[in-house]
Specification:
alpha/beta, TIM Barrel, 9 helices, 20 strands, 25% helix
Length: 360
């Protein structure tokens, strides 16, 4: 049942056959009255598409910004993270499936209007708010309103997204974001269709849009799944595309898979696979390549592209060294470090702090 209080959506069009087409993402769900889209949270109510999760969240938590992962955006600072429910992809390996695949609106226990969320970020000392856990594209109207409230309060906004969004809403959504980590789940159409039910091309279009047409600081994450997207040839093609189409300074994170959801038959990603992928990407000319979900200080630290000096040391999410000026230049050679560096590094570290918004 669709609640009467559902929030009006913005991107849809009526069709000649009486259905209404949702035009937020390339799925283009065509809905009869009362039907929900594939994401489950956008639905048809009368002649409109509405958002059923506006102002409601599956929970709030203060995280290190490096957990998003963002290694070049306000390093060491805390970020207030939240998500809702549902997703517009059907990833068989989803590692947040308790939220992204939820069909129970009762899981959205915390309510927070945009202004209250921005105020909470300030009170908690968070430099930014992250729209994460499930893809914020599907709760676009809520995410945009929160981001506008945050911008008015001097708080940054971070989108953690698969980048599966249409052109017009993409402009509105990323127009209020300050940083994004985009999941580039693989570099073959076969993988996207077989394991996510989506297509590769719209994600590549989003990445090119972000890097070349916005000021949104952008990093990329690829989860390497044994036997699916971890071949040396595919990793080389991915890295070469990033270097040639986006540029060598766009950070790329290779993250370790663990068996989850509907892919329990696959083994964990060996650390050697991640380190090999990092080497391949660096040989392809990428300057900032990281590994995630394993402990490896060398491959999680940041280095100056000019002189090779370590400029940000990392031990998991703890900053162990800092060799950058307040405006982001290498202290050894003066080379500019790409990213958003604003003064001294934060010291939040690796801790996570759950937040009850209703109590604030």
């Amino acid at each position: 049942m669709i609640p009467e209080s559902a929030h009006p959506g913005r991107y849809f069009a009526p069709l000649d056959d009486g259905r209404v087409e949702c035009r937020v993402c390339p799925r283009f769900c065509r809905l009869k009255d009362g039907q929900r889209g594939m994401c489950f949270v956008r639905a048809r109510q009368g002649g409109e598409i509405v958002l059923t999760t506006y102002g409601r969240s599956s929970g709030f938590c203060i995280d290190p910004i490096e957990k998003k992962p963002l290694n070049h955006f306000l390093p060491g600072t805390p970020v207030l993270s939240f998500g809702t429910a549902g997703c517009n992809l059907a990833c068989k390996f989803c590692q947040n499936h308790d939220m992204s695949k939820s069909r129970e609106m009762d899981t959205l226990a915390d309510a927070a209007p945009p202004e209250a969320l921005a105020r909470a970020a300030l009170e908690l000392g968070a430099r930014s708010v992250a729209y994460t856990y499930n893809d914020p594209v599907i709760f676009l109207e809520y995410a945009v309103d929160v981001a506008r409230a945050c911008r008015a309060a001097g708080v940054k906004s971070v989108a953690v997204t698969a980048g599966y969004i249409c052109e017009e809403p993409r402009e509105e959504f990323f127009g209020v974001m300050d940083a994004a980590n985009v999941d580039l789940k693989a570099f073959t159409e076969e993988f996207y269709w077989k394991l996510t039910g989506a297509h590769l091309a719209p994600v590549l279009e989003t990445l090119e849009y972000l890097v070349h047409r916005t000021r949104v600081w952008t990093e990329i994450t690829t989860l390497l799944i044994p036997g699916e997207n971890d071949s040396a040839a595919e990793i080389a093609r991915l890295a070469e595309w990033v270097g040639s189409r986006l540029g060598p300074d766009v950070p790329l994170h290779f993250s370790a898979f663990h068996p989850d959801f509907r892919m329990l038959d696959k083994p964990r990603t060996p650390p050697e696979t991640l380190l090999r992928a990092r080497d391949i990407a660096k040989r392809a000319g990428l300057r900032h390549v990281y590994v995630g979900n394993i402990h490896h200080e060398t491959a999680q630290s940041s280095y100056c592209a000019g002189c090779g000096a370590m400029v940000i040391g990392r031990d998991w999410y703890e900053l162990s060294d800092w060799r950058l000026t307040a405006d982001g230049h290498c202290m050894e050679c003066g080379e500019r470090f790409p990213g958003v560096i604003d003064g001294a590094p934060g010291q939040w570290g690796r801790k996570r702090q759950p937040v009850r918004m209703a109590a604030r």
